Amino acid sequence: MKIDDDPFDLAKLRLPPEQVQTTTRTPRRIEKRRQQFTMLPGSWYDKLSGATGPTCRVAWYLLHLHWKSKGAPIKLANGMLKCDGVTRWAKARALADLEKRGLIAVDRRAKRSPIVRLNPAYL
Fold first, then answer.
1. How far is the C-alpha of 43 from the C-alpha of 123, rounded, in Å?
2. Helix, strand, coil proportions of the chain in percent (round to 5)?
3. Domains (ranges, CATH) in the chain?
């Protein structure tokens, strides 16, 4: 048996480039999220001047959830915020900042997602 006839030669076992599928599918939840719409009240626009990126992202997400839940308190989980690049620590800082600006009230619970209520005076 010659060295060239090795059945386990990696070069012979590789698939040709045209047979390799390189496209990835975007999850349906994220595709639907990209089509969503959020209205930003002028009072929130004024209050959010000078806010950081994660704070604005959390604010927009809260406004969307508030509209979707028809004004009910919001249980703010980390999952969809993670898609926007907001970590759980950035979420905590953003909630504290929004609370300091008077836009929301937060009910923090140990080892659970916080419950957020938007201040009706600014809606």
1. 7
2. 50, 10, 45
3. 3-122 (1.10.10.10)
Residue 57 tokens read as: 């992202």
Spatial distance between the Cα atoms of 37 and 7, rounded to a whole number of angstroms: 57
Show the tokens assigned to 28. Answer: 């349906």
Structure tokens at 16: 């040709």
Model-wide pTM > 0.85: no
Contact status, residue 118 vs residue 66, Cβ threshold 8 Å: yes
Which pLDDT tens digit goes with each residue over 43-76?
Answer: 999 999 999 999 999 999 999 999 999 999 999 9
d(CA 103, CA 120): 8
Least Cα distance to 118 among 53, 38, 52 occurs for 38
- The identity of residue 116, as a single letter, is V
DSSP state of 111: T
